[in-house]
Amino acid sequence: MPSLVSAYFDWLAQLYDETTAACKWSAPRYLAEAGLRLVVPGDWVLDLGVGTGQSAEAFLARGCCVAGLDFSPLMLAEARRKHRSLVLAQADLDCPHGWPVAEGAFHLAISSGVYECLLDPVGFIARAKTALRPGGYLVFTFDEFVPGHPVQGVRVGRADSGIDNPVADLAGWKLRRHSLDRVQVWLAEHGFEFLGETQIEADIHSAFDVPIYYRLVVAKLVTHRA
Ligand SMILES: C[S@@+](CC[C@H](N)C(=O)[O-])C[C@H]1O[C@@H](n2cnc3c(N)ncnc32)[C@H](O)[C@@H]1O
Considering the entire predicted model, what is its pTM? Predict the structure, then answer.
């Protein structure tokens, strides 16, 4: 079912790379730095919320087989146009039904710039878990709740706060910020060992000219039983 969020990303799809370059979107680079050391050529990588393929690119270049999920058909079309070797499927990461991923098929699941869009952040971890082999890794970013920050000082806020991209008016949907301690608990509850985190400056929201801080989390699936 199309939502305001998927409609927003459909509208943004053809402008996404240009817009993210303008606001110095760097989460895919940090994701690659953390994730590339966990894979070898030929490994299967699942990109949850693949967008136009920015987060998948470094893993394709490493020789991994990369599958990307997204609920925006136009983002998927851009990803397909840019990266012929990407395996792509439309899926809503919030939805447990019709999950199109074979159980235990992936060495690594990655995700950048997506977690804050989701209504079901715990379900995301549960679904990433089913996709991974035992010993597989999950590397993802989340938009952090930062008390006192002009944009990130609220846990639930409009996605367009401080953005001046051409379709910002469509971005009236709410994004959800999280705290590291809560995310760590969710990971542990799903059988992941927490391996590390780092705070990154993901982009600059030009209206405030302040960095937007994300956490990058690295976790390893130690048991499928949790
Ligand atoms: C900010 S973009 C990030 C794209 C890419 N990972 C990157 O780092 O450039 C967020 C992506 O997540 C997708 N997305 C958001 N919520 C989703 C959901 N519930 N299910 C599937 N995809 C979703 C959007 O369509 C969009 O392509």
Answer: 0.94
